[in-house]
Design goal:
Layout: E1 6-11, E2 32-33, E3 37-38, H1 40-49, E4 54-58, H2 66-69, E5 78-82, H3 95-100, H4 103-107, E6 113-118, E7 121-123, H5 127-136, E8 141-147, E9 157-161, E10 167-172, E11 181-190, H6 191-202, H7 211-221, E12 226-230, E13 235-237, H8 241-253, E14 279-280, E15 283-285, E16 288-289, E17 294-295, E18 300-302, E19 305-306, E20 311-312, E21 317-319, E22 321-323, E23 328-329, E24 334-336, E25 346-348, E26 353-354, E27 359-360
Parallel strand pairs: 1-4, 1-6, 4-5, 8-12, 14-17, 15-18, 16-19, 17-20, 18-21, 19-22, 20-23, 21-24, 22-25, 23-26, 24-27
Antiparallel strand pairs: 2-3, 6-11, 7-13, 8-11, 9-10, 9-11
């Protein structure tokens, strides 16, 4: 293999249980987004646009659809799907274990640095700037961070840093946080350091083999050189139904937050779009309608996301909801969220059928 100064590893094996029925048959990184994309398209496009030409994708368990489509990318980068040796033996036991299991793959390229990132976040980042920051500080590890609302700090790894960016404290999903700087799950490691940490972690019987819970705290305890890289652009971890919905509504209401049509930083779609366009014969307000969806007459769609192939029957009412791919709402169905007695966002999963004249709110 040709030597690479830096290679990227994309963690794409999350089960996505917090995305409810949207991930029953597909992996979380393959969840459709904004009409033409899947979540993993953003990370892979960032790699390509950052001129990282060696990308390993740590794959989810079959029969999720991601392994079937990732190799058909139009990106100008070599993408290597990396599967566990055996799912029968349990697959990967954590994010760090997933990378540890692929040390032979990494070693083929003899890199100086390894970028670790997630396949289910929505953002644009030039990883070259992150790498330059890391090198200038002679860091062992650099963590990209972004501020989050204080009410959400328990969802993230939270970092406190000195004025020069050196990490003073790292807490994974704390109940009470002293900072609102959240780890984006984007790391650059100097490879010799990371390899040693992974090997030490692999033989630690008390470890859960996770970057946030084990690798970063271990490096902190060893006084390694860890820094934060502050990111000021739009970024969303869309690991919950509410976050997935809100991110798409953000871009609908203000497309400039994260332009999807920027020729200088294109987002390459790995999804094969349906040949048929959406057909809409009724009232649609503040909603995203994917290609191939059909909205019948006298239906009302408000503040909703209707995915590929979904069919909304006559007289149906949909508000603050996500309608999954190829779901069917029969005549007079009601699907709504966001009001007292209803979930924040209602979800109809892929291929589900809501019977005529039913009220559906989960």
């Amino acid at each position: 293999m040709k030597r690479a100064q830096i290679i990227a590893l994309v963690l794409a094996g999350g089960a996505g249980t917090r995305l409810a029925q949207l991930t029953k048959s597909i992996a979380k990184p393959a969840v459709p987004f904004a009409g033409s994309y899947r979540l993993i398209d953003f990370t892979l496009s960032n790699c390509c646009n950052s001129q990282l030409d060696t990308i390993g994708v740590l794959m989810p368990r079959n029969p999720f659809s991601l392994p079937d489509t990732i190799g058909q990318s139009t990106l100008q980068a070599q993408i290597y799907p990396l599967h566990p040796v055996s799912w029968e033996q349990g697959g990967y036991s954590g994010t760090a274990n997933a990378v540890y299991a692929n040390i032979p793959f990494i070693e083929q390229f003899n890199p100086d640095y390894v970028l670790i990132t997630s396949g289910d976040h929505v953002y644009k980042m030039d990883y070259r700037n992150l790498l330059l920051f890391h090198r200038e500080r002679n860091a062992d590890a650099t963590i990209a961070v972004s501020p989050v609302p204080w009410s959400q700090t328990s969802r993230f790894g939270i970092v406190s840093a000195a004025a020069d960016g050196a990490i003073k404290e790292f807490n994974e999903k704390p109940l009470h946080a002293d900072s609102n700087l959240a780890s984006m799950g984007v790391y650059v490691f100097s490879w010799p350091q990371l390899k040693q940490q992974l090997e030490d972690d692999a033989v630690d019987g008390n470890s859960c083999h996770d970057f946030g819970r084990n690798i970063i705290p271990a490096m902190m305890s060893q006084a390694k050189r860890l820094f934060v890289y502050s990111f000021s652009g739009y970024w969303r971890d869309v690991g919950t139904v509410e976050a997935l919905y809100s991110a798409q509504m953000d871009l609908l209401q203000n497309p400039e937050l994260l332009s999807l049509q920027d020729p200088q930083w294109p987002i390459y779609s790995l999804e094969t779009a349906p040949t048929n366009k959406s057909s809409v014969y009724s009232n649609v307000n503040r909603s995203i309608i994917f290609a191939g969806a059909h909205i019948s007459s006298q239906a009302t769609i408000k503040d909703a996301i209707v995915m590929t192939g979904a069919r909304i029957g006559p007289g149906s009412f949909v508000e603050r909801a996500i309608i999954g791919p190829y779901a069917v709402l029969e005549t007079g169905s009601i699907v709504r969220g966001g009001e007292p007695g209803y979930p924040p966002v209602a979800v109809i999963g892929e291929n589900l059928v809501v019977s005529a004249n039913m009220v559906h709110s989960y």
